Every structure is written in C-alpha cells, then in structure tokens.
Description:
Layout: H1 4-10, E1 20-23, H2 29-38, E2 45-49, E3 70-77, H3 89-105, E4 110-112, E5 116-119, E6 122-134, E7 137-148, H4 165-169, H5 175-192, H6 196-208, E8 214-221, E9 226-233, E10 239-242, E11 247-250, E12 254-257
Parallel strand pairs: 1-2
Antiparallel strand pairs: 2-3, 3-7, 4-5, 5-6, 6-7, 8-9, 8-12, 9-10, 10-11
Amino acid sequence: MIHVPALQADLADTVFAGKVHFSPVTESTNTDALEAARAGAPHGSVYLANEQSAGRGRAANAWQSAAGEGLYVSVLLRPPMQASQIHLLPLAAGLAAAQAIHAVAGLTVDLRWPNDLLIGQRKTGGILVESKTEASQVAFAVVGIGINVHQRSFAPGLSTPATSLDVETSRRISRNLLLVSLLKSLQRETQALLDSAACETLLERMAQSSTWLRGRPVQVHGPQACIGVTAGLDQHGFLLVRTDSALVTVRTGGIRAAEIS
Length: 261
C-alpha cells in the first residue's frame, strides 16, 4: 500500500505539498482529477489510487489497474500557458516518467510518441492528458500517468506486449519512491514549458529519449492514418511521417511498428 504520510513529507518542498488525495479504490484517477478541477481544486492537486476499476488510456483504451500492482496517479495543473502549447504536456510528462524510472529502477525508457513508455519492445506505462481551454489559455490540464510496477502477468492479446519494473529489474521497486521522483520530475518539466529557452530543449531531449522519432517504419492510427517512416518532430512537437506520397504532420493518434517493403 502507498504510505501517504511518508509521501506527504517527501513532497513538502514541492507544489504538491498537502495536496495528495489517496483512494484505495476508484474508477479512474483522471476522472477524480477532472471532477475536482471543475469544482475549483488548486494547481498541484494529486489524485492517487491503489486500484482503478475503470482505468483508461488514450483513445478510450482500458488500462489494467489491479490492486497494489502499479502506480496510478493523476495531477491537476493550472499552468499559465497558451492553449497552443497543450500538446507539449504529454511529451513533458513522458520525459518526467522516464527520468523517475531511471532514477529509481535504473532502467532506460524508450518514449513512443506521443504517450507510451517502453522498455525494449514492451510497454510499461502510458500517459493520458485531458484539458480544458478558455479562449487562447489553458484553464486546467489533468496529467494521468500509469506505470506497471509489480505486475507479473498481463492480459493476452495486447497490441504491444507489456512488462513491469519488477520484471525488468528482478527486484521489488518502491511505488512510494517512484511516485516522489515522478512528481518532482513532473514539476521541473512542466515548469520548463513556461520558459521559452528551456522549452526549446524539450524537443531535443525527447528526440534523444526515443528511437521512434526518426527513421522508424510506423503505422499511424487515428484521423491521419498512414504508413511511412518517421522523420522527427516539427517545432510544435507534432510527429512527421514520410509516406510514399507526402510528408504527413501527425497531430493526434498513435503509432505502431510497421513493415515497409
């Protein structure tokens, strides 16, 4: 079980101090955070559960969230940023998660645009950002992060094979330590989005943390479905995919490995 008092103490010097809300079981931490956001909850509120009964990922995909097995957390942010920057949040959250996993478990994470955390060819986590904008500003954003920590078995038929931190390290990883590291990294990365100079390095660091962004044959799922070879990110963080007929700027959707003859 997550030890909330220790967690609160470790976060005393962060924007999350005194704002951690823990539920033994909830339908979805993102749903909890969204409801709290609409009710006026403050920036930096954290919604954490030991189990989710209806966890979800991007594109309404279900996220398996067994009791005590993973890290299921959603963070409410009210950043003073332009609505046009909101698409950078999943990338910043991915970098934060990769940093936390490396710091606590010693594992290198491969970021699959826009929101998957992979170790080798297997998925260990994902990110779901849901937001509300008003005029040209972000009113609030909920950053949901799920990480497989203690799982030893996984549902059959997954589009990407799964793994967990315990499986990869052959030892038991502390969810408390992982969460503290994750939240501190997330604070740094989201704060950097507000600084134009620091923000410019995000895309460079994303490229360094991903084998998927350049020269990888992929199939794009979503409104801009296509098959091609990745050609990096544009200045807005959108994925460029070169097909037989055009250079496609993918603004939403997901990617999977593809074979191109």
